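Hi R.,

Here are the chain sequences for the assembly we discussed:
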Amino acid sequence: MSSQTTTRRKVANALFGLLAFLAIFASLVTLVALLIDVVARGGSSVDLQFFTSAPSRIPAKAGILPALVGTLWVTTLVAIMTFPIGVAAAIYLEEYAGRGRWSRLLRINISNLAGVPSIVYGIFGLALFVRLLGLGRTVFAAALTLSLLILPVVIISSMEAIRAVPPSQREAAYALGATRWQMVRRALLPAAAPGILTGIVLAVGRAVGETAPLILIGAVTFVTFVPVNPFEDKYTVLPIQIFNWAGRPQAAFQEISAAAILVLLVLMFLLNLVAVILRARLSRTIQW
Amino acid sequence: MKSTMKKLSVAAAAALFIAACGGSAASPSASTVALTGEIAMDGSSTVYPVAEAVAEEFQNANPGVQVTVAFSGTGGGFKKFCAGETDASNASRPIKTSDKPGPDGVAGTEDDELSEATKCKNANIEYIELKVAIDALAVVVSKENTFVDCLTTDELKAIWDLGSVVETWADVRAGWPAEKIDLYGPGADSGTFDYFTEEINGETKRSRSDFTQSEDDNVLVTGISGSQYALGYFGLAYVTENADKVRAVEVDGGEGCAAPSAEAANDGTYSPLGRPLFVYASVAALARPEVAAFFRFFLENTVELSTEVGYIGLNDADEASVKAKLEAALK
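And here is the predicted structure of the full complex:
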């Protein structure tokens, strides 16, 4: 190999490294700029009163209590509903369905569903859950709609995680005389758990930030009471409150909007933190 | 709060008086009994701040009543209202009343595109229209713009119409600088866009499209304030709150230039860009004492509260007539 090509290869190598660095740098700078802006504008509005008050036309008196509780309710219900259904669907498609024409059709459709705009799920949720099933404008109807919205993402990421488990793991289980269910439970799921978890947390994160479908299915904005019964109570969520405040003419509303964004960001951070910790614990048991 | 309470009791007394005069058996306003129940409102995001303010004060006075307000838009609100899902609907335009013939081109057949009013009628939902405030659409320039004082509606149409050839201020009026106009306006989903295009360009949504669009009026304020030659339009509240950055120009609708003041918007001289804001209340819901009390409270306080949130309050005559309309419906 001549020294000239070696130099070229080295330059190309350095160049790619630089490009990759610029990519991460650009995303980090955007994030940091957003954080600084939000903290600068809203940081001073975050106090105890902000967490314990209902919305008000007077920005200084306004708070996020109903929205925060609404978001926690919806997020929890969405996580509880999508986890078993999404993972079971992924196991079926990867381990039971085979590779026939039907299962291929199913896979393609699920991928397509993941790309459907969220407002379409809102229209569907309004027709099915709110009207046809008569759930009304409740927390439960919102959780069902958002579950449908993120299920395709949960299924696809779980499928990827399951596919990443080396075939040797499955074969070893079978070699020991395990049935398919025993193989799934003892070998496959523990090995795929960290990946599945990451997918679910990212998907739930998307549900936390959704606004449009919830406005459509009748989330309210001004509500002074905290939802207690998810099957009956009206609700609002943080993104709707943020959206409403951000659009107001008065500057003070934009400040509390930034404060609410800050709370939402911290909430997302906590959600991701839980996932990181769980993943670290689960990964410890995997050895291959 | 004391003054609103006083006003409420005055309203209750007035209601009793009217009920007594009418000799009807209408139940007395329940100001002596603690009200309970739920009231659901949805509709225009423009009317939302007024409804929110009223709901807040009403709940302070009547802790047993839960009022919720959503903002799925005027059209979205009417859909829910005519499906019987809400007690009242906020609207930044009157309810649509004329059905359009469907694909077969014949009116009165099954495939007609039904209007909001017809849908309500088919669902047996009777309603009354209450005008609660006025929102003036302001035509806005930067503070740095020193040459524009007044624009006629014809000039506005020349600037904003579909296929407009206006590029510079000199194209609008001779003598103005030959500088390119930077145009800013609301996005096509906004009721403000619908209203402005209908009043100025003669047809809803008919507009040139080569302008900076944003659903967020605060973005428009920022854009216009940054350019001496910019022009845009949005609700007056955003001008008032940003008086250090932008100013509203006068508009001449054929009867002379008029600034978007409270008086001009009320008496119709700020024409055609002063738009009434409505709340549609279900007559069936008004039979519930808490809903009746809520709307009496609403009309008692709407002038004060809508001014506070940045809109123009009704003048005395309009306030009296909308109150009379409510009392007539409550009989």
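The two ends of chain A are 38 Å apart (CA to CA). Residues 61 and 273 of chain A are 32 Å apart (CA to CA).

Let me know if anything looks off.

Best,
T.
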